[in-house]
Specification:
Layout lengths: L1 H8 L5 H8 L7 H21 L11 H8 L6 H21 L8 H5 L5 H10 E3 L2 E2 L5 H26 L1 H4 L8 E3 L2 E7 L8 E6 L5 E6 H34 L1 H27 L5 E3 L4 E6 L12 E5 L5 E5 L6 H16 L11 E3 L4 E4 L12 H15 L5 E4 L8 H17 L3 E6 L2 H9 L3 E9 L4 E8 L7 H7 L4 H10 L2 H87 L4 H22 L20 E4 L5 E6 L6 E6 L2 E6 L3 E3 L25 E3 L5 H17 L4 E5 L6 H12 L3 E6 L9 E6 L1
Parallel strand pairs: 7-11, 10-14, 10-15, 12-13, 13-14, 22-23
Antiparallel strand pairs: 1-2, 3-4, 4-6, 5-6, 8-9, 15-16, 17-18, 17-21, 18-19, 19-20, 23-25, 24-25
Amino acid sequence: MPQILERLAGFASSEDGKEYCRTLTPVDTISQAEIWQDQASAAREMLEQRGSPGLSGIRRIKEALVRTQMGGVLSTRELLNIASVLSVARGLKRYATGQDNGALAPLLQSISGNNQLEEQISTSIIGENEISDNASHELSSIRRRMKAVSNKIRDILQKYITSSSYSKFLQDTIVTQRSSRNVIPVKAEHKGDIPGLVHDVSSSGATIFIEPLPVVHAGNELRELEGAEQKEINRILSTLSLMCDESRDDILRDYDAMTALDLIFAKAKLSSDMQATRPRLNDRGVIEYRNARHPLLDPQAAVPISVRLGKDFDTLVITGPNTGGKTVSLKTIGLLTLMANCGLHIPVSEDSEAPIISRIYSDIGDEQSIAQSLSTFSSHMTNIVKILEAAQPGDLILLDELGAGTDPVEGAALAVAIIEEARRKGALTAATTHYAELKSYAIVTEKVENACQEFDVETLRPTYRLLIGIPGKSNAFAISRRLGLDENIIRAAELRLDREESEFEEVLSHLEQERSSMEAQRISADADRRQAQQDRRLADEYRKKIEREHQRSTERARIDAMRILENAREEADSVMRELSVMRVRGTADNQEIVELRKTLNTARDLLSQSLDLPKSPDDVPMFSTPPEPGQDVILTSTGTRAVVLSPPDKNGKVSLQAGRLKMNVPLSDLHPSEKQPEGIKDPGGVSVSRSFDPIKLEIDLRGEMTEEGVMLLEQFIDNAVMNKVKEISVIHGKGTGALRTAVQQALRRNKAVKNFRLGRYGEGESGVTIAELK
């Protein structure tokens, strides 16, 4: 288990999170185990859908906050650590907002954050040893004055080393420092020619390092400013420390929640890495692991086993050859049970079941100790004595090579007696052995079951499969025969077996043959079943493809018809406007205008009838009173259902909300939704494949073939154009990039597309293409 916990710790982001992983212990109540399992499942789902939350910024801050409680002033490093934790809290709140967080909702909702304190620290401290000028107005003022004085000192010194009057007195035309003061190197014989303070003398005595008198005054001023700067910095750190102390309880609560989340997401990452699943839990002591893999073995190389215990029988006796996988099977049972009790997913099939067990005892491996003068048998027996003394009802006991290391007759008798005692105490027991007596014991004893590790005699290699209900057959004679041992020797050995044992081995051999035959038949039946399922699936896909093609053809024709109708309506409206202008100008007779209008309306109605599309607004029920905000209406021209946002304005236009799209529509193009006339489409509007809503802004093409995806996209664009949508999102996924390329080529060809681009961060990045429509 320590290896699994260390592996778990490798997926944690924070130091405390790693420590929680390494010290994780099983729970003894099914309710708590269910909570832990639900949290791990929710975290894994969130990882797959939203990616990992940013937890790497969690730093240890508890000791620093304890010091603030005692009035201590925090260092810049400690304050930056607190700001980092607050930044993680802010990121987690953003990660959880507007999402279904399942079992993690209480933890995520408990995080409060403190944006103001985080910003105050981040803007005041820009490095571990650097305070920002913006930390306070006073600090900014001091540093400006320090800069001015420094410039003044530099100018004075520059005059000394460049002036012809003084340069002849200098040993070298440079400025250096002694005791943090700026000095110039003066020849010893001219030290009286440059008034100032002597700070140092060279080892030869030829050079005197003098701080010129004008620089002395400026240097003193600079030292005073440096003292004021440090005082202000201490004040700033003290203020920030006080602010941290005022929010100490909230910060510590957030910190505990974040480290708990770090542990939970580490469980989810381990689950994904192990290809594990959430088991069903029970408090009845029932183990049923299907296709279980040892958690420390390579998932691709490990041979899965299926094992059960505690339902039909309480003791499992596993037999088989050495290196056949008996010990691995025993360890798999123990480790998976411990993992499930720790709230970890386990590498099994989804229909597996794990018990909540308070205590698990094991005696696995050779613990021979020379120092303690213990043989293999003695070492095992010492452990078993302790186990039997401590065992209680419901415990799980795992015993490897039970009774080995001593006389076979006595060892077999002891093994049976130990199993009986474990059963008497109400414990579940799984034991491995080579003894034939235990096979017989399991056959005749109720609630005790045999199991064996399968062995392929043809290849002389174990298959590592665990077979429940079948005692392991001794393959010594078969293996010897395959390896070329003289047949006479093998027959002589067989004659030395007593009759009962010989008959027992013969029965086992017959059972093994029957099992192999049934296994072959099962495999063949499974193959036939899978083929039948595949044929049925292909037939269903072909039928659905034909139906989709038919629907697409129908929809394309309908969309084309609507486009024709829309053009006709626009042209008719244009003619009507011209006639109105003519009437105003007096160039057309009113009766002639009326006749032309009737003719246009009749032609438009006939066109609508011939296309089986909505008729003009004159043919549908109109409003007796102006529509009110919140009222449901239908756009007569498109059949789209919408909600009124505001009553008609002075131009007779109504503000509507249709899905996420807002629009202004003439009142004449609306009618009440409760009186939907014949010919008006379903509120969903023009339906494209997959029942696209006419105002839906995105289409998901993942899983589609390239050609089908392009057809769906073209229909979706047509629908968007009809509903005056200006921007759409096309979800094609990342994958191999073939679907993305096909989508972008289709967008490039489509005349309705103005331009397009890949999604940015937060939009889906390269898995999404954003298109702007004309």
